[in-house]
Write a structure and sequence with these properties.
Blueprint (H helix, E strand, L loop, with lengths): L1 H20 L1 H10 L4 H21 L6 H36 L4 H18 L2
Helix pairs in contact: 1-2, 1-3, 1-5, 3-4
């Protein structure tokens, strides 16, 4: 299970690097797929699964309380996305991609830090 969390951390880190280097790739992909049902289901499912993994494996990390809190945040985010529905999710994604595009590189930097933190926490 820890390997899954570390793999998620690596993927977040690489996504952050891509956002810093070429944000138009990420924004282009998301912009072309905002109405895609699979993206919505994937977004909800990943948050719920990662949240559960973080909660159940938090005792094995260097920061058990923080990792458990992050797990609960992931679960709440997944449940919130599920409750908002696919249509509102698509509208939210469109709004974010339109209005917050200028913060892409900053978000990438934060993703690099978060992915690196997850990896470090479970080494």
């Amino acid at each position: 299970m820890i390997v899954s969390i570390m793999l998620f951390g690596i993927l977040i880190l690489f996504a952050g690097l891509l956002l810093v280097a070429k944000p138009e790739i990420v924004f282009g992909f998301l912009g072309n797929n905002t109405a895609n049902v699979a993206i919505y289901i994937f977004a909800v499912a990943v948050r719920l699964v990662i949240g559960l993994l973080l909660i159940t494996q938090s005792d094995l990390s260097k920061f058990p309380l923080l990792i458990e809190v992050l797990g609960w945040i992931f679960i709440l985010a997944g449940l919130g996305m599920a409750a908002m529905g696919r249509k509102r999710f698509s509208q939210l994604m469109s709004w974010v991609l339109t209005n917050l595009k200028h913060f892409g590189r900053l978000a990438g930097g934060l993703a690099i830090l978060f992915g690196g933190f997850l990896i470090y926490a479970f080494l």
